[in-house]
Amino acid sequence: MSGQTAPAAPEAAVTVDVPAKINPHLGVGDARADGYHALATVYQAVSVYDTVTAERRSEPGVELTIIGEGADTLPTGESNLAHKAAQLVALYGEIETGVRLRLHKRIPVAGGLAGGSADAAAALVACARLWEIEIGDAELHRLAAGLGSDVPFCLKGGVAVGAGRGEELTRVDARGSWHWVVATTDTQIPTPECYEEVDRLRAEGIGRFSDDVEPIVKAFESGVGADDLARLLVNDMEAAAVSLRPQLASLMHGGLEEGALAAHVSGSGPTVLFLVEGSKHASALARRLRMRGGARSVHLAHGPVAGPLE
Ligand code: ATP
Questions:
Q1: Nearest CA to ligand 1 atom 11
Q2: Per the residue annotation, which of 105, 150, 156, 236 is the catalytic one?
Q3: Is 268 in a helix, a strand, or coil?
Q4: Structure confidence by residue, pLDDT tens digits, 238-270
Q5: Closest ligand 1 atom, CA of 107?
Q6: Among the residues of the chain, which ranges form H helices?
Q7: How far apart are the C-alpha atoms of 236 and 221, rounded to whole Å?
Q8: Which atom of ligand 1 is nearest to the CA of 191?
Q9: Do 63 and 107 share a domain, yes or no?
Q10: What is the pLDDT of residue 5?
Q11: Residue 122 sits in which domain range?
């Protein structure tokens, strides 16, 4: 019959790629009454991706398998953020069947790149599509923010200002693309420990809340060159991260000696980001960093890139 199409069969599997995030500006204020610190941050999604595949499963519940970065150490049960996200969507949509999640991790684990939050965002999107549940923007944002402060940004990608504890987002219309070399280290800095160190240093009069994001927002909107962006990078957690893990300082100096335009601790660390001129400069710096040693792994990335909703 002409003019009529059969309704599309529900998909048996949905695959979603989700990028890591960096914070070119991370201003950290005082701890609030709820224990979270007030943030004034600018996020950028960068081209290091995890992939989440959601498949139908007739038995109820979530089954999660992980391959890639950290597969041997990450939890696959309810404490995994992707698992939690799938459960939330099932609850929201009153779904009685289950889901099999396959997670391919490439985002370095516990590196201040929000890998867990990215996986949660991808699982929200993948499960909602798999089960054909319409979740409005506001509701999706609420579910995401309940999973973690970085999860709402991980849904969106691009560039955005984050206020509150990072979850109150305002999109930034960035013009341009910036290149980074991402150097991970063997050490770990649990995020709460880094916030405690920020508080301790502040009590000694070291550091202050960099709450003005306007200069870097304007720079992204006008598409500044990497040279100019280098002077605008801010991380109020950097002194705390270096104080807890002094070896970060030598990695940062090493990258600068090898020609990086700027060295910037990613979030609460311990990953270090080096801003470079472009992709050729990135490859050359990555090669030199690998030869010098001191980094566990070195990745190339550029941003901004789109998130799983865009
Ligand atoms: P944050 O800054 O949000 O603390 P991060 O970017 O430094 O995080 P993640 O890779 O998100 O680092 O991991 C932080 C911790 O979260 C890990 O040590 C791990 O135990 C837990 N976690 C739970 N789910 C995941 C996941 N899907 N991927 C990575 N880590 C996860």
A1: 116
A2: 150
A3: coil
A4: 999 999 999 999 999 999 999 999 999 999 989
A5: 10
A6: 81-93, 115-130, 137-147, 151-156, 191-203, 214-222, 226-230, 238-244, 247-257, 279-292
A7: 23
A8: 4
A9: yes
A10: 64
A11: 13-23+45-157
